[in-house]
Amino acid sequence: MNTLIGITIYYLLPLSVLTFNLGLLFGIFFLILIGMIFGLALISLNLQRIFELIVVYTILIYEKSSMKLLILKNLSAHRENNKLTTLIYSLTLGSIIFIVVSANLIL
To answer: Which domain holds residue 31?
Structure first.
């Protein structure tokens, strides 16, 4: 798989620029952008717990420690639902950004 991606980027991308093959060029850019969207979704899944801790300790700075502990336990109890929500949100946001950028490029 990595070999295919490397051949596509290092051989087909310059070839499409040199031969003015815009269909191939836009197809390669589309695949690169889709890969970036999925990569950023995976990064958001891996950093979810860290962001939860940052949000709890910054927003609830004046709360009692028992309240912070209760919220952190609640977040850990609903971790699977939170992961699904994070995945759906990041993929939706990435797709919307992709559509807006594509529309701006066309216009």
So the answer is: 2-106
Cα–Cα distance, 79 to 48 (Å, whole number): 9
Angle at 55 between CA 52 and CA 47, to 5 degrees: 35
pTM of the model: 0.64
CB 54 within 8 A of CB 104: no
Q: pLDDT, tens digit, for every residue of 16-62?
A: 888 888 888 888 888 888 888 888 888 888 888 898 899 899 998 88
Nearest to 48, CA basis, from 1, 87, 92, 10: 87
- Please give the structure tokens belonging to residue 12: 């087909």
Q: Quote the number of domains for the chain.
A: 1
